[in-house]
Amino acid sequence: MEHLSSILAFVLFASITWIAGVWLMRTTDAIDTKYKLGSAFGGLLILGIATSLPEIAISVSAALNHRYDIIIGTLIGGIAIQTAVISLFDARMRTRSPLTFAAASLTLVLEATVVILVTVAAILAIRTPVIVPGTSISLVSVLIFLLWLGGLWLAYHARAGLPWRSEAIAAAPGREHHERRATINHPYLRKTSNFKIFMIFTLAAIATLIAGVGLQAAGSGIATNYGIGSGLFAATFIALAAALPDISTGFSSISIGDYKLAMSDIFGGNAFMPALFLICDILAGHSVLQHATPTDVWFAALGVLLTGIYILGLIMRPRKQHFRMGIDSISVVALYVIGVVVLSITGG
To answer: How many of the other CB atoms lie within 10 Å of CB of 157?
Structure first.
């Protein structure tokens, strides 16, 4: 009975994360449109934090409870599964070309490169546990945070254009960031007062935070009850549950032809997650990444590998679809499944 209650609790909190997270992202878009937050670097910072509340709630809750395996699994292992989610967007394409062919953006290559930089920095922190003198904070956690801020700054400036002259033949990336936020997308929010929008945002944020804490507790219970490694469970099921709002938003972007934005939301979230290690170090009073296991290193490397494949896809732009996906997405799905199966067989 205890096993069943943990599973039901996990499903319940995942459902709350989906519903509340979707409204959180919708109201964030509406607030951005009204106050033009996305037009400034500070706006990108605020929006990035607001749309990553599930991961923030899970990692903060785990840090306060000293569940280092959950933190690392969610923030590092989650990169692999959220990158694999892009293949779902690819399968939903209404065109006869793969997602990377249609998106065709060097800005996406830049964002994906930032994901690789912060993930590799996390691996360095695992292998070289250097602490900031007089604190309990990992020096590399500070480096990861600075790399994320630098990547955010580069992404902001890249929106104005890159110093390249290139043509992506037959590309259809969809609306740019400023075009997407020129009008409020959701019909209900277009007719709603600013006060109600902020109320919905606040309630959705609170519900998302509560659900994140619940996911962390229920996930820990399931891992213990069924003898699954907490890091492995966090890197797969918990990370997937935290990504549910991004999946919903990605599907919506694909349905209206915003192919570039569908990928950008995933890469942006993946780059932000390792930056949370600095906060977790402070809250836990200890360097979190010092507790990483070979399983965590495996998932970190897998995340880098999958992101690298999509970088190649964005540059080479495969035009043919196989099973409704590009060869890059097929490779990502295959490698992710093989990686998880091999890790499980070998005792991960």
So the answer is: 12
**Residues 6+ away with beta carbon under 8 Å from 313:** 98, 100, 326, 327, 328, 329
Please tell me the pTM assigned to this model.
Answer: 0.88
Q: In this predicted structure, what is the pLDDT of residue 44?
A: 65
**Domain harbouring 22, CATH code:** 1.20.1420.30
Residue with tokens 């994320």: 148
Q: Looking at residues 290-295, what average pLDDT do you find?
A: 89
* Euclidean distance between CA atoms 77 and 68, whole angstroms: 13
Give which of 61, 34, 14, 105 is closest to 313, Cα–Cα: 105
Q: Are 96 and 344 in contact (CB under 8 A)?
A: no
What is the rounded CA–CA span in Å between residue 271 and residue 1?
39
How do residues 182-199 score in pLDDT, each as one tens digit?
455 667 777 788 889 889
Q: Which residues have a Cβ under 8 Å from the Cβ of 192 and sit 6 or more positions away?
A: 30, 200
Neighbours of 94 (CB within 10 A): 9
Work out how many domains the chain is built from and give that number.
1
